[in-house]
User: What shape does this take?
Amino acid sequence: MQYDPSSSVVPVVLATLAFSLCLRLANSRQNAYSPDHLKRGAILVRQAIQWNQLSEQDEDVMVASQHADYAVAYLNAARATLSDSVLEQVAKVNIYALNEVVEAAQRKKSAALGADCAVANAPSAPTWTRV
Assistant: This one.
């Protein structure tokens, strides 16, 4: 039986092509986000922070609750768009801590709104009398 060198070249070439394809796919996943996409994620995080700050300054309970809801919505949109680790890199903010702050503010404002509505809708003394 004679050795044929061309028979061992095909598997080597195929293995090299498969390896280079895997490397290319791995590199493309790391750089999957365009600069515009990253910028939009950072803007959404910044908007969440601004709405949260605004809700803390509002004196009207209804408006404060609405602004707290906006803050949560913007942060959730950012988190749906990019991963937390990528958002932390582009926005320079701890996303987990921001999420805790924003959700706590929303719960606080919702509770205040509920208490305010309960007081406003409390039954008054009856105007009728028993005979």
Observations:
- The mean pLDDT is 82.
- The two ends are 121 Å apart (CA to CA).
- The chain has five helices and no strands.
- Residues 68 and 106 are 5 Å apart (CA to CA).
